[in-house]
């Protein structure tokens, strides 16, 4: 795999060989037999694999430096890390995508890795993904906060300990999960996170700069329709109850939205075709677009049935809060 990748990318300086979240470490039959020997352990098994893979990279592809995610290294005793020879072969990437990142814990890890012999360290954040396997829109404030905390780590640890930060952007949690945020909807979050890193935070002037670059008035997204949630809730829909005045508020907007949805779906399919395989487009539309389209169609059908059952109004009726 390494040789195939580097055959296609001949000018790379770093190669990420992963090695993170090895949930089934030692579960294979060969590994079980190896672990039965008294001097062997799960930590030693992990380090021996890293050593073998990294050595192949360095031997067969001089000038390419292997990177590894750091989670499997965090709990290995320092002396064992030193003795393994791994610190001379790879550069660890300390990763954390949370808005509650433990700054002091990361600074401690940096010190530990340096004492073990790792000369160069990296950080990894996320500008999309990492907040839900089926997340459709990135929670921008979450990702901004993650980067602000990484800035604190960089400012609190040993000077120049971190070589840089890798902004990950997930598209699936794994090969069996659904698609999460696609790149286009992640661009605002990416812009905000990059601006945070460049300016050392996301103060109001930085926010305005990011919004100006993007050509948007706000990075926030509203998602509530008060007439539907307040006057045509699931309770009303099941009973086919609706105030006649509310029909005038809901139906035109819903019909307009349905028309825009249908146009958008057609445009979206055309836009996705140069980027994704047909089965990926089908999956994403079925998972993220068609359910919303169906809900809108169902809403309009329920509204029509409820309207047909309502007698003509003979009195002012309910107070909708629209009149003084």
- Contiguous uncertain segments of 5+ residues: 318-324
Radius of gyration, taken over Cα atoms and rounded to an integer in Å: 27 Å
Beta content: 5-15%
Distance between the termini: 71 Å
Major β-sheet annotation? 5 strands, parallel
Share of helical residues: 40-55%
What is the average of the pLDDT values?
89
SSE run? HEHHEHEHEHEHHHHHH
Discrete helix count = 12
Number of domains: 2
Helical/strand content category: alpha/beta
By CATH's scheme, which homologous superfamily of the largest domain applies? Glycosidases
Question: Overall 3D geometry?
Answer: elongated
CATH class type of the largest domain? Alpha Beta
Number of strands: 5
Q: What is the fold-level CATH name, i.e. the topology of the largest domain?
A: TIM Barrel
Report on this model:
With 324 residues, the protein is of the alpha/beta class. It folds into 2 domains: 2-24 and 40-214, TIM Barrel (Alpha-Beta Barrel); 226-309. It is built from 12 helices and 5 strands. It has helices at 2-8, 29-35, 42-60, 78-84, 103-116, 140-156, 183-199, 204-214, 226-231, 234-239, 244-272, 278-309, and strands at residues 14-16, 65-69, 91-95, 121-128, 162-169. A 5-stranded parallel sheet has the order 1-2-3-4-5. α5 links the parallel β3 (91-95) and β4. α11 packs antiparallel against α12 (278-309). The protein is elongated. Mean pLDDT is 89; it is low at 318-324.
